[in-house]
Amino acid sequence: MVTALWTSWILLNSPWLGKFNAKKHFLKRGAQCIKRMTSLVMKKTTAFYRFISSIIIVLICLFLLYQFFFRQKNSVVTINGMPVPEDEYKLHLSSSIAITYNYFHHKYGAKDHDDFWTTSYEGEVPLEYVKAKTNEKLIHIKVLQKLAIEEGLIHVFHYDDFLVQWDEDNRRGKATHEAGGIIYGPIENSIRNYYNYLFSNLVIKLKRKLNQTRFAASDSTLKSYYETIKGEYFRYTPSIKVAYLEFPYKSSSQKEIALKEAHAAQKRVLEGAAVEALTGEFPLAHYGRVTYSDTALIYGEENPDRVRRKLALQLNPGDIKVLYTQESMNSGIYLMQCLGRSPERTLAFSTVKQDVLWYYQEAKYSKLVDSLKQNAVVRFNQTLYQSIKIR
Known about the structure:
3 domains; alpha+beta
């Protein structure tokens, strides 16, 4: 009996497990089994029962070790000790295929062909590129899953366990639908959608937990942080008045023409012409004169007034500039003249305290995640990794 317990202890405390950062998980599972078995053994008085129970304890430990090393051996990569099997790796690789095609098409004019994935384009190979993108994504996912384990939100993540959960969830959804029940969302999820759904929910829970613990902040901490960010986030211009000519375009060739027209109009204004008087010389341009107030809400990401106000805020009184935004293709080139601008103001800490807290916690979270990714221990199974092809 003593020999069996000693053997079990050695197995569970093996440096092999520590090396792969899986020791804690297996110690928990093994310790629970051993505790129950030891309790049972101590109640038995015969040597026979003690012998059989000792063998069972050792077999349990060996089974746990087999599970661990089997998963390690059949993993494409381990990230902080968390194994990524081939199916999970290919799941994330497949989601990066489209952006890889897009990247090589726009940068090199590459088109899909039989040897596309292994062709070198000025030193860049699509297969290497898509794998690098996949690795970046998986490192991000695994460090957050590991952090969630440390924070007690999940016990462990294994892809085969996830597949069982996905199948069970789809079965429940289908059964509920067939029974006339209400289903919020799709009746059945694809593996990718379900993976993303679980992960996004896990991140939400993780951030909530961290905000309540590691990232909790006192008023004095927030006030100090407010002083460092107020210029970027909480300064505003109460009002600005501009006159403008808008030269619209809907294609890259039209944009070039509009840009030339706008610069020609700018030259005329600098020579003394009034902006509103130039509509006759430039019939394609639209004239406008407007005062933007910071308190006026402008809805819609591509609302022309939102775009114009953003451009206007780049001007100081007396400025006459040609401005445009890269955010929308179907936009316009503007010749703008600033007719007046009120002095900038800063929102008081008391009115933006909750916003400051949000910015503070977001910055802390980003810094933590970046640190975890930079320090992640990544080990590839080169045989499996090199064997993965797109086609």
